[in-house]
Amino acid sequence: MSLATKPSVSSHMHILGGGVSGLAACVLLQPLDLVKTRLQQHHSTLPPLPMANAPLLARSTLWSVATQVVRSESLTGLWRGTVPTIFRNVPGSALYFGCLERSRSILGALGVGRSTANLAAGAGSRVAVGLLLMPITVVKVRFESDLYRYKTVLGAVRGIVADGGVRGLFAGSGATVLRDAPHAGLYVLFYEHSKTLLKAALPPSAGATPTSTWGVHMAAAGASGIAATVATNPFDVLKTRMQLDPARYATMPATAWKIATEERISGFFAGMLPRLLRKTVSAAITWTIYEEIVRWAGNRVQ
After folding, report:
1. DSSP letter, residue 172
2. Which of 217, 182, 6, 180 is nearest to 98 (CA)?
């Protein structure tokens, strides 16, 4: 969807598309998010190992963690943290797509090139929304771990504030910015380029049918999600550690140093597989639903 065609659709439809797509993705993929958090947490709770034994840090896998959760907490345990995830992702996706659309329109009107506009709008929108929703993000991460046993979202907020003050609700903000800005910026840039290339590669006989359009959006979103997720995983690990244990991981440089010296390079990529699966599938679901809702709205106003 080009910068030139999007303004014909009202902003509230972009927000609606973002909210609906965010809800679908977070409910379907919560197990992967929980496993990712547990894997990153498990690395941090293992005792320091000498370099020769560093490969032992990889003994926790996606399957072993998921199996352990089901055995100890039942199948529904994989959806622990879904409520704060919904509180974060639904308004987060709605605000993100609303900000993204508005930012790209403004940048396009100012004569900014399409690629630059996609990169800047994607990064800026994600960072702004991420910082706004940081408190519920901290709550979500703690719900997903097995280090805390909060019963309600409000109880979690009270516990976090009691332990670290209001500042505790913004733990890991710096790492989140360093993760979200390049991830969102690169993602939107890759997504728009991939979509253009895939549409050009379609045979003329395919046309712009709903099936071909849906397939292009899914493929572009999935490929873009892989590239952006791998590049930003180290910052996701820093964020999770700082939010789960702010006493041990007080600052971003100190957290990075501790991981580098105790866990080596593997520590920065803990939980990458479930995060990669979740981000890629989530991106495909989110952007496909969003694009289809906006396309449907655009057809109605024509």
Report:
1. T
2. 6
Helices (H), 110-172: 114-132, 134-144, 153-164
**Cα three-residue angle 1-182-174, rounded to 5 degrees:** 135
Distances (CA, A) of 35 to 58, 141, 176: 14, 11, 19
Judge residue 59's burial from the number of C-beta atoms within 10 Å of its C-beta, 0-12 exposed, 13-18 middle, 19 or more buried. Answer: exposed
Q: Which residues contact 227 (CB under 8 A, 6 or more apart)?
A: 186, 187, 190
Distance CA 15, CA 100 (A): 10
Query: For the chain, how many residues are written?
Result: 302
Token pair, residue 243, equals 């939010």
Report the pLDDT averaged over residues 178-207.
81
Sequence letter at residue 231? A
CA 57 to chain CA centroid, Å, is: 24
**Mean pLDDT in residue range 188-203:** 83
Q: What is the pLDDT of residue 1?
A: 44
Give dist(CA 255, CA 36) in Å, integer.
18
8 A C-beta contact, residue 192 and residue 114: yes
Radius of gyration of the chain (CA): 20
Q: CB neighbours (10 Å) of residue 162?
A: 9
Phi and psi angles of residue 89, each rounded to the nearest 5 degrees, phi first: -80, -35
Which residue from 270, 194, 269, 267 is spatially nearest to 225, judged by alpha carbons?
Answer: 194
Q: How high is the pLDDT of residue 60?
A: 75
